[in-house]
Amino acid sequence: MSTLLRTALYDWHLAQGARIVPFAGWAMPLQYEGIVAEHLAVRKEAGMFDISHMGRLRCRGAGATQLLDSVCTNAIAPMQAGQVRYSLLCHERGGVLDDVLVYRWAEEEYSLVVNAANRDKVLAWLEQHRRSAAVQIQDETLATAMVAVQGPAAAAAVADLFADDLRRLKYYFACRTWCGSTAVWASRTGYTGEDGFEIVLPAEAALELWERLRGRGVKPCGLGARDTLRLEAGMPLYGHELTEEINPIQAGLAWAVKFSKGDFIGRSALEQARQDRTLPVRVGLEIEGRRAARRGHRVLSAEGQAVGTVTSGSFCPYLELSLAMAYVMPDSAAVGTPLQIELPGAFLRAAVVPLPFYKRTPAG
Amino acid sequence: MHNPPDLRYTPTHEWVRWDGELATVGITRFAVEQLTEPTYLELPALGSTVEAGKPFGVIESVKSTSDLYAPLSGVVAERNSELLDDPASGRKGNLALILEDPFGRGWLIKIRPQPPVSLEHLLTAEQYEAQLAAEGH
Where substrate is bound, by residue (chain A) (predicted)? Predict the structure, then answer.
């Protein structure tokens, strides 16, 4: 693991006995106490994740808005300062290069949070499509750290830690503020299906914030729980539900594709995809019993015809159900359709159910 | 790693305890830690036969699915009922025992070897630990 990148919290993870695994070129904590306990902490109270491996790119200067609107499927120009938007970056054939969060800070100033595995690809893509020399693209990943605080108690946990009260942030909004004398940015976003915040700060300040959150009873959670939480919340994961061979329409992400905004890379392919009823689409599956379907397992119709492939699956700790996401042919995608999963040596009965599997009850 | 010296091991992380009549089989602490918390266990029926080196069951966690490999051939003489759901009483099996006490209460099955064999083909604790070290654990 000597060639792996380490986050600013790596030594802390080691000292806490976290199990470290390689992930997208980084040495990351898979779990501390255990995936199930960490998963339940996020659903019932609050957990925190070191997500410093996510790529953080700054894009600014005259032409930044035009550049991002040309590479993003979602509409960038109408965003308000302080707003965050989920978007896909697609290639000309409509396949997904990455799914990203775009933060708008000012007229021509943005941050992008991208998947760790796609950081170099996205950087190169932005450079390639930059038409103006005035647009600066900086990779701030290694100089910064990123921490997610998630769960019903997340808002209480971050109260008065920052110069601005993050509890006043609306969902999918961000602010630049201070943690003591440290400049940070924070958003009301996350990847668990819970209320929560994602905070970016200089790498050298990460440990102090982490310890202060710990002092407020926020449980450290690893990538294991992050994966089961996002699965339960029906959120796609790049490399599983999203790839360069899959378009956002199939993935059920048409809401993040704004045909009304004008031209963007992949637009004409996606307009065709919208009419195409022959491509497999993403569905949620509930499986009978406790056995899990895993990525790559075949999905069969009730009659035994191959109709698709599982992309993610696990026994989900909060709902206590075996759940999976899969791509299946459109005529097998209706909610309620009975299907089977083919495992080595076994067939599991499954049914199409609505996504997300888990949806939090809004507070209040 | 604290693998008990009186047990024998497979390269696939099962252990065997021999009492002269039955071979008790479980998975090592290393295996269960790799797996994380067990969520599903499938064991062969009483009286069924298992074959050395072939899968006899499946164990799953929230993270992964693993086959369980028989260390020797024989007939399944016992299954650890503490681990398994009991439909008659409605009691739910306690899979956490495998994580908490993999070499003790978390045992899986007992095999009556057929034909009778020695355990000489299986790894000693020392050899097993050497294998783990060689794999970088």
Answer: 198
- What confidence tens digit (pLDDT) does each residue in A214-247 have? 999 999 999 999 999 999 999 999 999 999 999 9
Tallying the residues shown for chain B, one arrives at 137
User: DSSP letters of A243-267?
Assistant: -TTS-TTTTT-GGG--GGG---TTH
Residue of A nearest to B67 (CA): A344
* Residue among A36, A39, A318 with most chain B CBs within 10 A, to mutate: A36
Which chain B residues contact residue A30 at CB under 8 A?
Answer: 36, 63
Q: How many Å apart are CA A29 and CA A42, to the nearest integer?
A: 16
Asked if A35 lies within 8 A of B60 by C-beta distance, the reply is no
CA distance A82 to A174: 5
Q: Does A25 share its domain with A152?
A: yes
Q: Do B62 and A31 touch (CB under 8 A)?
A: no
Both A171 and A101 in a single domain?
no
Gap between the Cα atoms of B82 and B41, Å rounded: 12
Q: What is the pLDDT of residues A111-124, one digit of tens each?
A: 999 999 999 999 99
Residues A27 and A169 in one domain: yes
CA-based nearest residue in chain B for residue A346: B58
Question: How far is Cα A187 from Cα A205, in angstroms, rounded to an integer?
Answer: 18
CB atoms A35 and B40 under 8 Å: no
Q: Which residues of A are annotated as a binding site for substrate?
A: 198
Predicted-complex ipTM score: 0.86
Task: Supply the DSSP symbol for A204.
Answer: G
What distance lies between CA A86 and its chain's CA centroid?
Answer: 9
DSSP string, B40-109: EEE-PPTT-EE-TTSEEEEEEESS-EEEEE-SS-EEEEEE-TTTS-BTTTTBPP-THHHHH-TTTTT--E
Which residue's structure tokens are 């199990």?
Answer: A19
A270-275: long-range contacts at Cβ-Cβ below 8 A with a sequence spacing of 24 or more?
Answer: A270/A73, A270/A90, A270/A94, A272/A94, A273/A94, A273/A247, A273/A249, A274/A249
Question: Is A153 in the same domain as A167?
Answer: yes
Domain boundary among A198, A233, A268: A233
Q: What's the predicted TM-score (pTM) here?
A: 0.94
Buried b vs exposed e over A312-322: b needs ≥16 C-beta within 10 Å?
bbbbbbbeebb
Q: Under an 8 A CB cutoff, do B37 and A36 touch? A: yes
Q: Would you say residue A364 has pLDDT above 50? A: no
- Residue A315 β-bridge partners: A322
Nearest CA in chain B to A224: B63
**Structural domain range at position A323:** 280-353
With H, G, I as helix, E, B as strand and everything else as coil, classify residue A302.
coil
